Amino acid sequence: MTESELNLMNRSTKGITTYELLYVAGIVAISFSSIFIKWSQADVAVIAMYRLYLTNLLLLPFAWKYRRELFALTRKQWLMLGASGLMLGLHFLLWMASLRLTTVASSTVILTLEPVLVMLGSYWIYKTKANSAMLAGMGIAIIGSVMIGAGDFSLSGDALAGDILSFFGTVAVAAHMLIGKGLRDSVGAFPYNFWVFLFAATALAVYNVAVGNPFTGYSGQEWGLFLLLAIVPTLFGHYLFNWLLKYMNATAVSMSVLGEPVISSLLAWVLLKEALTGYQLVAGVFILSGVWLFIRRGQDRAELASKAASNGSAV
């Protein structure tokens, strides 16, 4: 870890670390995703594909700077990047499809299983343990998420199919996060994101060819939504969280999904004119409180690095 990274890690504003500020910014960014998807009329696989291809197009001007890192990868790293990209593409396909079949609340509340799956996977693969405060924060946040979605679950028809798609999309993104955690210890943020987004987009392109989805003929408004999805929730959301995987444990980063229904509900209230009840606001307080408690206790690597820096300066 470089000296500049340690300085960034130790920098804080009134007790709030830079990583925590970036984490909150990422939650706000990903919360726009469901809004843009609701506005679009294109097939969800096309939306996801262009979202990722356009993200890579925006990253392309910086590729020359990282040209050596982009190709200085082992066979195992290439395979893991491909697997991570495939899981991300599958997550986008399944979760975005669920939004067309069930309510945003129902689809999002199922996503709250992500940190649970990631925590179990982190313990099994990386031997990462969660302390009591982290578990309490997760529990509080999940209670709030269940409160938001409790009235929207359905056990029949399209809604049930949407819930099932959301669940398998959650499993896919948990796998993506766990693979990414292993890769980010040896692969830089830019090459990791660039290749993962490219592999995910290409997997979705193959799917679109297979099912016969058109690649052209979309309106200027649709292309604008594809671009907004690339910039806001992907670059300022997923890219940022993948970068944070090196400095926060995977479970802490995956907890971002619990903040999404709160911000998304507020955005839907403002932009889509959807109703927002006092009950939902109380649930939102639960979620945000739980997420905040968790991330304050979830930065194991950052804390260790900070202690190491302190010990080094004291010698």
From TrEMBL:
The chain crosses the membrane at residues 21-39, 45-66, 78-98, 104-126, 133-153, 159-180, 192-211, 223-245, 252-272, 278-295. Pfam families: EamA. The keyword Translocase does not apply. The keyword Transmembrane helix applies. SUPFAM superfamilies: Multidrug resistance efflux transporter EmrE. It is found in: Endomembrane system. Residues 20-148, 161-295 form the EamA domain. Keywords: Membrane, Transmembrane, Transmembrane helix. It is a multi-pass membrane protein. Its main location: membrane. GO terms for cellular component: membrane. Belongs to the EamA transporter family. This is EamA family transporter. It comes from Paenibacillus agaridevorans. The lineage of its organism: Bacteria, Bacillati, Bacillota, Bacilli, Bacillales.
